[in-house]
């Protein structure tokens, strides 16, 4: 009789290093949701991403400025349990792919091996931030990881903030110039 509902939303983020000429990178969201049919309906478990329970088509720019050596940026994703059942949130990263952007450089590209990333979250609109455990490191270390779980009670929300920074050492950053890295983030809300 125990009922378990899940909501899955997938984010595809693209980070590109565009050298000294400027430009940005794109990330697009798409989602798929599943909820098992069940006769014993006792409540709902709905995960909203940036205000939508069907996040397909949402997008944000990552990063807002060129990724020059030493440059950093951040982006926010708002997650909310819009249902009536307390849940626990897991954040999974998968399908990390490096794409070489400089002819002659060895494939598959070096961006995920030099780009420093971390995540933190706030439950009160940004008044206090808590680092997300194990999220501080090179982008390459995120692949295959699941972060959390974080409690997300019925009606509760949080803001997830992604940080990224290029190494200040130009020689260290140089191999990743013009390279691109893509990855998927899946947000999963389980019944608590
Ligand atoms: Ca390269």
- Order of strands, widest sheet: 4-2-1-12-6-10
Given helix and strand content, the structural type is mainly beta
Poorly predicted runs: 1-41, 56-64
Number-wise, the strands total 12
Largest sheet: 6 strands, antiparallel
Mean pLDDT across every amino acid position = 75
Q: Helix content range of the residues, please?
A: under 10%
Question: How much strand?
Answer: 35-45%
* Tally of alpha and pi helices: 2
Net shape: elongated
Ligands: calcium ion
- Output the radius of gyration: 18 Å
Number of domain modules = 1
| Order of H and E elements | EEEEEEHEEEEEHE
Q: Whole-Å distance between the termini?
A: 15 Å
Protein architecture, described:
By secondary structure, the protein is mainly beta. The chain has one domain. Helices cover 4% and strands 44% of the residues. The chain is built from two helices and twelve strands, in the order ββββββαβββββαβ. The strands form two sheets. A six-stranded antiparallel sheet has the order 4-2-1-12-6-10, with no helix packed on it. The N terminus is likely disordered. The site of calcium ion has 8 residues, from loops.
